[in-house]
Amino acid sequence: MNRFQTYGVALGLLLAQCSFSLAVANAQGSVSPDPRSIRVSIVQSDPQVNLQIHGQYLLREMGSGSPLKHAGGMPQVIVRGVSEGIQFGQSVLPVFGVHIEPSRDADINLNGTRLRGTVEIMRQQDFNLQVINHVPLESYLRGVLSKEAPDYWPQEALKAIAIAARTYAVYRRYIKVGADFDVTSNVLSQDYGGKSSEKKGTDIAVEATAGKIVLFEGKLFPPFYHSTCGGIIENASIMGEKYDIPPLEGGFMCKYCTASPFHTWKRRLTKEDVNWVLHKGPHGKVGTVREVVVTKRTAGGRAEQVKIVGDKRTLELTGYDFRALFGFEMLRSLQFNVTKVDDAFVVEGHGWGHGVGLCQWGAAELARLGYTAEQILEFYYPGIQHVDLETLLRTPVEVIGS
């Protein structure tokens, strides 16, 4: 998710049921993830990263926790996975995972981004690196909100987005209990810029809502949000049937995002453009492109199925796959019409993002009209309850939409 745009596509665990229960530490001694800390995948599979540490830090071996090095700082070095272990600059540590614990006032700089919390660097079998940032929930939110919304927006809108983002992070923390990380730092989860991206206006909103989340009938759910709905809130089932749950049913009008620069947009795709993306993509060629037609729409009017007719074959794609072919910035949403004009296809659309849940530009306008953060959230997620995160630490937690 970038500063003005979010896709919030939750991947979830592959479960057959629509809901499951997770017991939080209780009288019976059961154990669950601590939602006050989030594991962010900064790098998933890169051959190298740039690392610099300002201030005192302790380097430990992952797994055993054995101290490897304690120092007053680290100049910028290139970190690589090698057959012997992990190489830091010219030095090689004979381990396959390290845990970096900075002192209170120290900074970890990874690929130019300053990070709060601790960092794990792991060498994978192919020698590529995985990097996980373990960060307190509220610090994580500071690095998210500044990327998700302009810091000059009304505070009530920023607070509403902060609560939605916090709830989404906690939701991911619970459903990803058996995974290496909870969220990615990009559009697949929530855009995260670490300490480097923090801003005063968004920090104030995070602090003002500290610990606040939303539930539906006492259950955690993924409160998706996006930049601009373009006029109508979509049912979350477009992301998968498991998300067809009451607070994300959508199907209602939102007339509050008309000020968004992404409310309407237009793109011209030549036949050569379509041929090129098909040639480079996973779906194969169709020959000379003759038609591009939306063959099925969602209840909210978004493209659910798109047919590309070529002189050699016809290709049927989901709306999502069609959009992914050209890129999410080129085709800002699935709320579009296609018109053939000469040897090109004119795509006219509305909105940016999937259209599910909270519309960020709509939230900004509602705040200007006097709505509180709680009222904004209730508008976009009907039937929710406002609770404090501490509630989850005292009772069993049920998750829906997973």
Describe this structure as you would to a colleague.
By secondary structure, the protein is α+β, with helices and mostly antiparallel strands. It has 3 domains: 48-127, no CATH class; 138-231 and 355-400, no CATH class; 264-350, no CATH class. It has helices at residues 137-148, 155-175, 200-208, 271-280, 319-326, 360-368, 373-380, and strands at residues 19-22, 37-46, 48-61, 67-82, 85-88, 91-93, 97-102, 107-110, 113-115, 118-123, 129-136, 183-184, 212-216, 225-226, 264-270, 289-297, 303-310, 314-318, 336-341, 344-350, 358-359, 384-388, 397-400. Strands 2, 3, 4, 5, 6, 7, 8, 9, 10, 11 and 12 form an 11-stranded mixed β-sheet that branches. β4 (67-82) and β5 (85-88) form a beta hairpin. α2 (155-175) crosses α3. It is globular, with a radius of gyration of 23 Å. The chain starts with 18 loop residues before the first strand and ends with a strand.
